Amino acid sequence: MDVCIPQDRAPRDFCVKFPEEIRHDNLAGQLWFGAECLAAGSIIMNRELESMAMRPLAKELTRSLEDVRGALRDQALRDLNTYTEKMREALRHFDVLFAEFELSYVSAMVPVKSPREYYVQQEVIVLFCETVERALDFGYLTQDMIDDYEPALMFTIPRLAIVCGLVVYADGPLNLDRKAEDMSELFRPFHTLLRKIRPRRLKNYKEDKYKHTWVYHSKIVENRGKKS
Predict the structure, then answer these.
(1) Which InterPro entries does this UniProt record tie to the protein (predicted)?
(2) 140, 38 Cβ separation under 8 angstroms
(3) Which of 46, 88, 102, 149 sits 20 to 30 Å CA-CA off 3?
(4) How far apart (Å, rounded) are the C-alpha atoms in residues 133 and 143?
């Protein structure tokens, strides 16, 4: 398909939502084995409803592969160097079905983030990146500390990110006007506590005092690191 229909491949942006351990070279083989089993009437253990829902798609997918094989076989007997429109259409149809089955099957087997959850996760990543950049600009962190994987940063950066999210980027992932369930799962358990903290931060740490907040948290972690 990469050679015959390189510009017509089905989009697979959803794969970025899969857990890291799922994205490996053997995934396609596992998916095809699952499709054949479902098409033959098997049921995924503890996934009966999902199996029944995916069975029609699995059957259509296996039929589509037979169409692809037939088109390839016919063309191989005529001209190995030509890709006919019939062959291209069969491959396009199979690719679309396989992508749809891939998303359905993996979603049934492991937790897959929704588009909203994935967006919130990206917000947190941006917050941490902005926090580090801001800390470097203020001189509270050095590039050497980051390059050397300074252990204290594991505590310093998250603390600074919380302060930064409450004071500087209040419309970001730490926007407490959102419902708790709309926040990142990283901060969700602390929604009530963060609501108590925010008024104090907004009152006491304006831009001129905000620098003190960075230094304060950095010194705490620095001292703890020396003690350990």
Answers:
(1) LST-2 (IPR051118)
(2) no
(3) 102
(4) 10
